[in-house]
Amino acid sequence: MLPFQNHPIQTRWPAKSPQLLQLYSLPTPNGVKVSIALEEMGIAYEPHLVDFATNDQMTPEFLALNPNNKIPAIIDPNGANGPVALFESGAILIYLAEKSGQLLPDANRYEVLQWLMFQMGGLGPMFGQLGYFHHFAGKEIDDPRPKERYRAEAARLLMVLDGALAGRDWIAGDYSIADIAIGPWLRTLRDFYKAGDIAGWQDLKNVPAYLDRFLARPAVQKGLTIPARPA
After folding, report:
1. How does pLDDT run across 10-19, given as a tens digit for each residue?
2. Does residue 110 sit in the same domain as residue 213?
3. Start and end of every GST C-terminal domain (predicted)?
4. Which candidate among 11, 25, 90, 141 keeps its CA 20 to 30 Å from the CA of 103?
5. Which residues, 6+ apart, have CB-to-CB distance to 53 below 8 Å?
6. Which residue, of 78, 102, 126, is where some domain finishes?
């Protein structure tokens, strides 16, 4: 990558504290994964709002950091071998865990990673599609089959998660980056998309309490609000 000081993103989101990790994000379920992780790990960072309302994610400056025009993305000026630029929330969570030595223990590293991938490949995409058809413009489509496809898959994934949480407070034993990935999407399905009932939330034995535990963590409460949305 270009030296951090000369990166194009600096022209649109100049760093006030360039020695800190720079977060470019929005408080969506994917975006808050990283702010929550940074708060949990105690890594100092500077957040920058990438506002979808003004198509910030499509600007040349942001595309120079993430050509896939999605949040979150980071630049860490203090990488092990120099500045590190990353996009994709799962990759960023792994990077931060390895940088800090937290929330990805050696003893069950691959169990944590499997549940992280479960969220990345399953919960996120399926919940997002159900949200589109239930809460956004997709609800105007007369054909019931697309919504039903995603409703059924969301319900199935919730049951998988519910079974795995039996007898556990956290999905891989101790609290980890897998929980940081999963929790925001459960909250979004239930509270923002208002799709919990149609996905069988009321039949779950373990997931509701799991989400409550997650949301009660101080670092989660703070991370859910970062970066602050425009007033």
Report:
1. 999 999 999 9
2. yes
3. 105-231
4. 25
5. 230
6. 102
